[in-house]
Amino acid sequence: MQDSTSPLYKRVKEQLCARMLDGTYGPETQLPTEQALCDMFEVSRITVRQALEELRQEGVVKKVHGRGTFVSPPRAFQNVDALQGFSEAMAPLGHKVSNQLEGLRYLEAREEIRSRLNLEEGTRVAEIKRVRLLDGAALSFETTYIGETLARQLTSADLGTQDIFRLLEEHSKVRINHANVAMDAIPTDEETAVALGLAPLTPILRIERHVFDANGHPILFEYLHFRGDAFQYRMRIDRDRGTKRGTQQ
Q1: Nearest CA to 174 among 227, 144, 216?
Q2: What whole-number distance in Å separates Cα of residue 57 and Cα of residue 78?
Q3: pTM higher than the cut 0.90
Q4: How many CB atoms are located within 10 Å of the residue 92 CB?
Q5: Residues 99-134: tens digit of each pLDDT
Q6: 175 to 44, 76, 109: CA distances (angstroms)
Q7: What share of the chain is helix, strand, coil (3-state, %, to 5)?
Q8: Calpha distance 60→70 (Å, rounded)
């Protein structure tokens, strides 16, 4: 290995990443054993384990009990520069999307949901829970809240196969305009862990999406919980050309 000022395990990690990028180790390919990697890079087993553990934490590789370490498949991603339903975003990329309807009920909206949807106290909302599957694997667990009057217009719709955005536009003639989105990482709760087949407290990506119509009225509010090891949100950010030099303090 070439000399470097970086830690030895970092250099092993970089070499492994380079071989994944050039196709030596493709997606779902099993990596050589720890001993084989030690011989390959002329390093100790502790160094190899450090490199593999950092790759695992980053989701680049995965350990399969009793079998070894494998290259993880590429993460699915969705750009956030356009407001799209999950199927709308994934289908053009060649993915197959399906849904499992976990629950649909009408209940009195709690204070947070009333505030988000601009509803009066005592108003009922539909609570829709779905697991979204990408290429057959559970990827996200979604909880959507819609005012009862609007939601009742979807009673004949197939929530198991279609995006709620499209259903609203086709069945309710709603013109969706924009959404406010907030993202954070949280430990999964019990319900989400069971839905996605995760260990309790596994870190996941939580997205709060507040959707408005063309008149600026709130339509729905939802929590989207994505597996952090299998999904990314991507965005393009342009530098503000109006920024003036010399204004820094």
Answers
A1: 216
A2: 21
A3: no
A4: 9
A5: 899 999 999 999 999 999 999 999 999 999 999 988
A6: 61, 28, 24
A7: 30, 35, 35
A8: 9
